[in-house]
Amino acid sequence: MKTKNLFLSLILMVLFSGCAEVMHLSQQYLDTDAPLSQNEIIAGLKEALVTGTNNSASILGATDGYYKDELVKILLPPEADIIVENAGKIPGGQKLIDDVLLHINRAAEDAVSEAKPIFVNSITSMTISDGIGILKGNDNAATEYLHKTTYDQLFELYRPKIKASVEKDIAAGISTKESWDSLIGKWNQLSNSIIGKTAGFKPVDTQLEDYLTAKALDGLFLKIAEEEKQIRKDPAARVTSLLKKVFGSVDR
């Protein structure tokens, strides 16, 4: 811990003084071919973020990337819990629910690849102070920075892609939206009937694209956090020489 704190102190001194003595000391303590410059620190952190976001998007963008990963699998909106609980009262209800679950996860898998260039563009705005805060932060400090600085923009850019994916035929010529509308339509027909009103059922009206976008991004940031932790903790995950240098120095 003392070594890590010393490393961070030296980096700060290098950034704000640049004196030859400090550079010499940093060379001694980092035990590398050359002392880390502020450009290398920022470049290394940006590279870690790009690596983490690309890996996460590739994992989630594969078939079943969302659907078969229980940590990020997208379930029906909470408003639809009553439908799940009463699936047997809807003609073909359970199959409708299963179809919608599959299709909404396929929509997220289909759209997630579009996040890659959005993340890359956002990462380029990282400042020196941002980089130092991330370097000495928690295992998910970079992910938190990315979430804080990009989430709203990502949501706005990502939502139309989710919408297009939801409206695209995913399986057997049926789109996610059609599956959802069919499920909700049958439920609302039941809830608006005399039997449904007597039972106290309420119609469901959820903006599917907004819900899916939020859940898809939640899953993506969760995966990015896992990738960041790997890079920080596992030398084998540092796939470039720059990542090895920057994060290896923190280890020492």
Structure description:
- By secondary structure, the protein is mainly α.
- It has twelve helices and two strands.
- The protein has a two-stranded antiparallel sheet.
- Helix 3 packs across helix 11 (208-233).
- The termini are close together.
- The model is unreliable at 1-32 (pLDDT under 50).
Q: Quick one: biggest sheet?
A: 2 strands, antiparallel
Arithmetic mean pLDDT:
74
Q: Identify low-pLDDT runs.
A: 1-32
Strand content: under 5%
Strand neighbour order, sheet with most strands: 1-2
Number of helices: 12
Brief overview, please?
It is built from 12 helices and 2 strands.
Question: Tags for this entry?
Answer:
mainly alpha, 2 strands, single chain, 12 helices, 252 residues, two-stranded antiparallel ribbon, 2% strand
Q: What topology emerges from the helices and strands here?
A:
Layout: H1 2-16, H2 20-30, H3 38-61, H4 81-85, H5 93-111, H6 115-123, H7 128-135, H8 141-167, E1 169-171, E2 174-175, H9 176-191, H10 194-199, H11 208-233, H12 241-251
Antiparallel strand pairs: 1-2
